[in-house]
Amino acid sequence: MRVLMIYADLFSYTPVIKTLDDADKDALPASIEKAVIGFIHAEAEDEEKLSAVETKLVKNLKWAARKNDTKKIVLHSFAHLSGSKADPGITKDLLNRAEERLKTSGYETFQTPFGFFLDLKVDAPGHPLARLFKEF
Questions:
Q1: Cα distance between residue 106 and residue 72, in whole Å
Q2: What is the pLDDT of residue 85?
Q3: What is the pTM of this model?
Q4: Domains along the chain?
Q5: Is 59 helix (H, G, I), strand (E, B) or coil?
């Protein structure tokens, strides 16, 4: 698992190209203010330890949100941080479970449309904890 976490004053996305046949055809653009965006890359080896990876992902996202004084977290599947990729279905399930855990913990949580290339706009401030990378 690799996750790039960026705190953004404003994060916007627009679905552009559908990359998975079973992706939601009705995916809509959205904007979220003052949120931590997790650019999440699940790797093939994560499939053998999903529970542990999910727990570490949730803990790291909550930590980044606390450090940036926000209760908003965006989960974005970003399969560009490693050559190893988990099965898309497993990745989507992992994101769904992480989203539920974050919501249960009181975080306002969003997911970008899964199975699309997106146009992204990230307005991120220049302070040390606005950009974090974790690998586990």
A1: 9
A2: 97
A3: 0.95
A4: 2-124 (3.50.80.10)
A5: helix
